[in-house]
């Protein structure tokens, strides 16, 4: 009786690998992972189109969403991410932190659905929103990533005191947008550009004398928006968060994966991709 050749054993090993992969085995080991609540400013100024990188959205909200989605695919399994939106004075949680490998599809769907049309108020008080996001993250036992251009309306809003303990919640304030003022698009409910916001479009409640003088200096009465980096750095120092300016998705991923915001936890790593890859390699070896 002829003994099976080496190709038979390779095929058998490939089938065994596929059969094992069907049970979705996992290997648990301690590794540095992260737990974040990502909060996205969805106020009108975040529609400003001042990103100019090929193949990426030019509006601030779109650039944030693509950058965060790329981070989702690059951060290590075991990392957990929640999503929230900010406008007026509050951060509203959409999803509490979920493990990014097991729930990646749900997180991406929720992230893509974030939109300026979900705003429940036209004005934004950045400090109030940030402090609320920090309190919410603390309750969820997570860090925080707060995406904003720091553009306040009204401009004379008084900053509230920070009543938390600086550094108790780890994370990032991510500055979004350019340093050169740019006009704020006015969009219809279909997302089509219909013009640009002007001072006359704002309610009187936010037209303080100081704000009116500021707007009069702007060209043609347009409302212009820029990244208020100095103010965001001050808020970072006040809360103990780190500051990062959003320039590329890759740089954001590197910042979010830094060891300062990580903790060592037992993490179940999926072995299925490796087993499928091994089965494919064994099957190809039989063709040699």
Which of globular, elongated, flat, extended, rod-shaped describes the shape?
elongated
The structure class reads: alpha/beta
Beta-strand content bin: 15-25%
CATH topology name: Rossmann fold
Percentage of residues in helical conformation: 25-40%
Number of strands: 12
- CATH class identity: Alpha Beta
For the largest beta-sheet, the strand count, sense and barrel status come to: 6 strands, mixed
Tell me the domain tally.
1
Question: What is the strand arrangement across the widest sheet?
Answer: 4-3-2-5-6-11
End-to-end Cα distance, whole Å, is 25 Å
Rounded radius of gyration (Å): 24 Å
The overall pLDDT average reads 86
Order of helices and strands: HEEHEEHHEEEEEHEHEHEH
The CATH architecture category equals: 3-Layer(aba) Sandwich
Low-confidence stretches are 205-211, 215-219
Total of helices: 8
CATH superfamily: von Willebrand factor, type A domain
Explain what the structure shows.
Helix 1 runs antiparallel to helix 8, helix 2 runs antiparallel to helix 3 and helix 2 crosses helix 7. The chain is an alpha/beta fold. The protein has a single domain, classed as von Willebrand factor, type A domain (Rossmann fold). The longest helix is centred in the first third of the chain and has 16 residues. It contains eight helices and twelve strands. The strands form four sheets. The protein has a six-stranded mixed β-sheet with strand order 4-3-2-5-6-11, sandwiched between helices. A two-stranded antiparallel sheet has the order 1-12. About 4% of the residues have low confidence.
């Amino acid at each position: 009786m002829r003994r099976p050749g080496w190709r038979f054993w390779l095929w058998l090993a490939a089938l065994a690998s596929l059969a094992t992969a069907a049970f979705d085995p996992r290997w648990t080991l301690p590794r540095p992972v992260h737990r974040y609540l990502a909060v996205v400013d969805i106020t009108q100024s975040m529609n400003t189109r001042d990103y100019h990188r090929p193949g990426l959205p030019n509006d601030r909200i779109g650039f944030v969403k693509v950058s965060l989605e790329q981070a989702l695919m690059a951060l290590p399994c075991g990392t957990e991410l929640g999503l929230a939106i900010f406008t007026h004075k509050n951060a509203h949680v959409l999803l509490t932190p979920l493990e990014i490998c097991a729930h990646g599809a749900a997180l991406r769907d929720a992230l893509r659905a974030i939109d300026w049309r979900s705003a429940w108020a036209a004005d934004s008080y950045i400090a109030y929103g940030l402090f609320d996001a920090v309190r919410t993250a603390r309750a969820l036992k997570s860090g925080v990533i707060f995406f904003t251009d720091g553009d306040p309306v009204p401009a004379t809003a008084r900053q509230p005191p920070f009543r938390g303990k600086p550094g108790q919640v780890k994370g990032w304030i991510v500055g979004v947008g350019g340093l050169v003022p740019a006009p704020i698009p006015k969009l219809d409910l279909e997302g089509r550009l219909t013009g640009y916001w002007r001072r006359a479009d704002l309610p009187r409640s936010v037209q303080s004398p100081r704000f009116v003088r500021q707007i009069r200096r702007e060209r043609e009465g347009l409302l212009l928006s820029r990244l208020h980096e100095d103010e965001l750095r001050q808020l970072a120092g006040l809360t103990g968060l780190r500051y990062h300016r959003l320039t590329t998705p890759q740089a954001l991923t590197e910042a979010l994966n830094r060891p300062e915001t990580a903790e060592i936890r037992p993490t179940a790593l999926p072995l299925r991709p490796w087993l499928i890859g091994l089965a494919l390699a064994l099957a190809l070896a039989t063709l040699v």
